[in-house]
Structures are given as C-alpha cells and as structure tokens.
Amino acid sequence: MTPSAARAELVTLLQMAYSGERAAAYAYLGHRRSLSRPKRSADRAMLQQVLIDEIRHRRVVRHLLSQLDAAPDPRRERKMRRIGLTIAAFCQVGGWYAPMYGAGKLERGNIEEYEVAARLAHLGEHPHMVDQLLELAEVEWDHEQLFRAAAATHWLWRVSPKWPETDVRSHIRTSFNEFLTGDEPDPTLRWNPLR
Ligand SMILES: [Fe+2]
Ligand SMILES: [Fe+2]
C-alpha cells in the first residue's frame, strides 16, 4: 500500500471512528439514564467513566483528522447521531442485559478499528499518531472488558452467542511491534471496514 493510499484509508477510518464515538456517547447517555434504580449506582458510575472516555476519544480523533487536513463527514455525523439516539431510546425499554451485551460487542470492534488505524498511520507516514491510536485501542479494550464482565453476571449470558475473546491488553502493543518487524501477516486486512 502506498503512503497516500494509506492516508486516504486512514482519513475514512477516522471519520467513521469520529462519528462512531458520537453514536456511542448518545447511546451511553441513554444507557446511563436507564439505570435509575439505586442499586444500579455502580453501573451508572461505570457508564459515566466510559462516556467521559468516548467524549475524549472524539476530541483526539478530531485533532488527528485536522492533522491530516481532513474533517468529519457531515452525512456520517447525522447518521451516527440517529443511530446513537435510537440505541439510547432502546435502552429505556430494552432491560438491563441487552444494552450491556450490545455495548460489549460494539466495543470489541472499536479495539480493532483503532489497531487498524495505527497501522494505517504508520503506512501513511504519520508515525507520531501511532501511540495515540494504540492508546485509544487500549481504552476500548478496557471498555470491552467492563461490559463483558457486566453481561456475564446475567443468566442470559450463558445462552447468548459470544463475540471472540480479546487477547491480553498488552497484545495491542506487541502485535503492532510484530507488524513493524513484518512478523504479523498483513494485519491491516485483519479487520478493515473499508474493504
Ligand atoms: Fe471510544
Ligand atoms: Fe468505547
């Protein structure tokens, strides 16, 4: 892949991530609101922290886009706002389990999204972006663990289809280093919504 092709893919992927963070923020606002009973205060605190992280991610991704002389995609922004608000509405009627389960599954995809972005940043000759993108992947890893652990406390977890387990957190960095040394088989193709 040429550096300019990698940069173009990185811009598209970051536009998707930026708007995805918007959908996530709306969804988690609704999710937090649905946890109104006093015994759900620990869940609310967890959602609050995740929400803060997603808002910060959006700031970071916006900054990276501007460094690439790019901007968010307004159409995708509108679409992901609608999706976020729809999920938020569902959280009011969807019970406790479905939002936790759905969030875990979505966060699993977010990890790989930022791992792919880090590789594209390297291939696109923006090495200074790599560490920030890997850090975003690590925080999404934390989110996936929180929601997986929460969902696993519910009896429905036993009968629900499971998304693939994550590797240990440190794998995010070690697999990136393997990619740098050429030991990883074409990792940008492992998960890439652009293909
Ligand atoms: Fe995020
Ligand atoms: Fe997240």
Give me the secondary-structure topology:
Blueprint: H1 3-34, H2 41-67, H3 74-93, H4 97-123, H5 130-151, H6 171-181
One fe (ii) ion binds at residues 21, 24, 54, 57, 110, 140.
Descriptive keywords:
globular, mainly alpha, 195 residues, Ferritin, single chain, binds fe (ii) ion, 6 helices
Description:
This protein is mostly helical and about 200 residues long. The protein has a single domain (about 5-190), classed as Ferritin, CATH 1.20.1260. Helices cover about 70% and strands about 0% of the residues. The chain is built from six helices and no strands. The two termini are about 15 Å apart. The mean pLDDT is about 90. The structure holds fe (ii) ion (2 copies). The site of one fe (ii) ion has 6 residues, from helix 1 and helix 2.
Task: List the total number of helices.
Answer: 6
Q: Please indicate the percent range of residues in DSSP E strands (runs of 2 or more).
A: under 5%
What small molecules does the structure contain?
fe (ii) ion
Query: H/E series, N to C?
Result: HHHHHH
The Rg value, from CA coordinates, equals: 17 Å
Second CATH tier, the architecture: Up-down Bundle
Give the assembly state of these chains. single chain
Low-confidence stretches: none
Which percent bin holds the helix content?
Answer: over 70%
Question: What is the CATH superfamily?
Answer: Ferritin, core subunit, four-helix bundle
The CATH topology is given as Ferritin
Q: If you average the pLDDT, what whole number results?
A: 91
Largest sheet: none
